[in-house]
Amino acid sequence: MTTTTMPVERTSALAVPLTPRPDQPERWITHSTPVPFDAAAQSILQAHQEDGERDDTAVDRLDTWSFGSSDSESMQLLRVPFAGRLDGELLTLRELAYSQLCAKLGIPAAYIRTLPRKLQEACVNLALVGQNSPALLRIAGDEVRAVVSDRYAAVDDRLLLEVVADTLDRTGFRDDARVRAVAVGPHTLLRITLPNEAIPVRVGDVIEHGIDIGNSELGLRSVQVTPVTHRLVCLNGMRAWKSEASLRMRHIGDPERLRDQLRDAIPVAFAEARGDLDRWKRSVDLLVDSALEEIEALRSHGLSTAEVQSVGKTFAETHVQLPERSSAQSLSDALNTRTSAFEIANAITAAARARDSVPARLALEEVGHRYLTAATS
């Protein structure tokens, strides 16, 4: 293993830790007025274009690369030069790519990033010695957005969107389908509903049913089809947490097989989501003696103390009047009121909107569905 060929700099610069670049910005975009599928798909591709031109670099052996920096700030990779081979360009690591690289090398990413630059380079380059395994670098511009297995057969968003559009055509949903929400960044998602089949679960409270199409180009998730419902009054979404209609497809890189699986999965997922509308209607008449006790019981569904408190505050903001200077005790007293399973489920999904990341938001939406299923079974 040859040591890094990055330019030598002053000792003071070598003491400052290198950092990875940020990942593609994560955004959740809710459409109060639903948009056609083609427009939503174009917004995803436009976000990718703004993030940087996509490319892949195949790595035969990780130990043919070195770690360092040319600007004293960014973590970078460079092919180890030897006679007869061009050095190649520097590639800057993003957050996810850095974490994935450390995982492959078996070194602690959080600890390494706290070290002075000189120690960072020594530790990572030492870990690269003898690493003869191959990898695939997923590139955006001159930045590495992911370090995945060489066996990773990517189903990129452009391909997936084309296949989904074709599948919606073939299954007869294309004309009625609209997109209520889009997530872009390391996780991609389209929330597709059928507005023409929406129903009022009570006067003035309309809920649509549909599906989430999820993907990640960076090895973070498989291609997913999940039944969902979407409440129009507050634009809350709820995802099926456990369902035979949910589909998880590993990145197989075979468009025809992907089309076949989606052609079977999408109608089934729409049908199950339609069934969840009946759960919503039943939950309106299911009375709960104490909102406080019902929300506290959400711990059994895996929520943390902070998450339970968030659901309680969300419920209180809509259903009770709190004093100007409310305390934990006053909140508990206010929540000790009768309500319905419908309102508890909505408090869960409304709290999901405040989650910082797309996976965290979706996880809480699934808790809402888990609660609704248990309450109406």
List the SSEs and their pairings:
Blueprint lengths: L10 H4 L12 E9 L1 H15 L2 E6 L5 E4 L7 E4 L11 E3 L1 H11 L3 H4 L4 H12 L6 E6 L2 E6 L8 H15 L6 E7 L3 E6 L5 E4 L2 E11 L7 E9 L4 E4 L7 E3 L5 H29 L3 E2 L2 H6 L8 H15 L8 H8 L3 E2 H12 L5 H19 L1
Parallel strand pairs: 5-7
Antiparallel strand pairs: 1-8, 2-6, 3-4, 4-5, 6-7, 8-9, 9-11, 10-11, 11-12, 12-13, 12-14, 15-16
Helix pairs in contact: 2-6, 6-7, 7-12, 9-11, 11-12
Number of helices: 12
Structural Rg? 24 Å
How many DSSP-defined strands?
16
Terminal residue distance: 62 Å
Low-pLDDT segments = none
Structural class, by secondary structure, is alpha+beta
Biggest β-sheet: count, sense, barrel? 8 strands, antiparallel
The share of residues in helices is 25-40%
Count of discrete structural domains: 3
Q: Could you tell me the strand content as a percent range? A: 15-25%
Q: Secondary-structure element order, as H and E?
A: HEHEEEEHHHEEHEEEEEEEHEHHHEHH
**Average pLDDT across residues?**
89
The dominant shape is globular
Q: Notable features of this structure?
A:
3 domains; globular; 12 helices; OB fold (Dihydrolipoamide Acetyltransferase, E2P); eight-stranded antiparallel β-sheet; alpha+beta; six-stranded mixed β-sheet
Explain what this protein looks like in three dimensions.
By secondary structure, the chain is α+β, with helices and mostly antiparallel strands. The protein folds into three domains: 111 residues, OB fold (Dihydrolipoamide Acetyltransferase, E2P) (Beta Barrel), CATH 2.40.50; 122 residues, no CATH class; 90 residues, no CATH class. It is 40% helix and 23% strand. Strands 1, 8, 9, 10, 11, 12, 13 and 14 form an eight-stranded antiparallel β-sheet that branches. A six-stranded mixed β-sheet has the order 2-6-7-5-4-3. A two-stranded antiparallel ribbon has the order 15-16. Helix 7 packs across helix 12 and helix 11 runs antiparallel to helix 12. The chain is globular. The mean pLDDT is 89.
